[in-house]
Fold this protein.
Amino acid sequence: MSKNTPSEAAGTRKMLLELLQVANRHVAESGHRITRQRHIIAKLQMKCQATSTAEWFLDYLRTARVVYLAGRERLQLELASLDETPRPSPAARLDQPADASLQPANWPEEKLLNPE
């Protein structure tokens, strides 16, 4: 797996957070749909009407909710793995140059005498 630059990692994190919001909404809405479907089944039973189609649809909603929960968990794990990656703070990056050869103390003497 290739390493992301800080800006790529930030973009990935932002995208994952947006997807997590959608996943959370799907999980919440699926819970409301399941509750509503249970009420529909209860009303049908009170009226002594057939409930097989309504029960089948309830099973479908439960299956969809399992898929939504699994997707949300994958997103949470991906975000957690991004958070575990050590990232130097901006201040630490300023204190330590990426390449020591850029420091004047490491330049060859001729470069100091004849800068071009």
Notes: Residues 44 and 75 are 38 Å apart (CA to CA). DSSP finds four helices and no strands in the chain. The chain has a mean pLDDT of 81. Residues 6-46 form the longest helix (41 residues).
